[in-house]
Amino acid sequence: MPRRAAHIPRPTPPPGPFSAAVEGTPTMFVSGQVGEDPQTGRLVAGGAAEQARQSLTNVLSVLAAVGKSEADVLRVGLYLTDMADFAAVNAVYREFFTEPYPARTAIGVAALPMGALFEADVVVG
Question: Residue 3 and residue 25: Cα distance in Å, rounded?
Fold first, then answer.
């Protein structure tokens, strides 16, 4: 199956050259989502936990737009600019995912788009 972009309606254009989600096999790869309010195009106020909550809300919105849900997520990638926020992000993560949890990585990074503190991407089956 050739790569096919999923077009997700949103009021503001994405801040870079990427598709919100791409299908090419029965697996779908969802692009990284920061804690951007899709109505304003700006990061939500607060710290890493608030941005993680919005980021994961954005991920679930992308999934819903293509007929998928949290239950379809196989792998999650978490990116934090400060690993000291890991415990707070884990607490938020538990609000979105249930057992059996998806496979997951958590990576400390120097910087993220828009000056974000947190970003998440997922692989969906």
Answer: 8
Give the domain CATH number at 85. Answer: 3.30.1330.40
Q: Which residues pair with 103 in a beta bridge?
A: 75
| Assigned domain for 42 exists | yes
Residue at token pair 């109505």: 39
Please identify which residue in the block is written with the tokens 């939500």.
Answer: 44
Structural domain span for residue 58: 32-124
Contacts of 10 (CB under 8 A, 6+ apart): 38
The pLDDT tens digits for 8-67 are 777 777 666 566 776 677 889 999 999 999 999 999 999 999 999 999 999 999 999 999
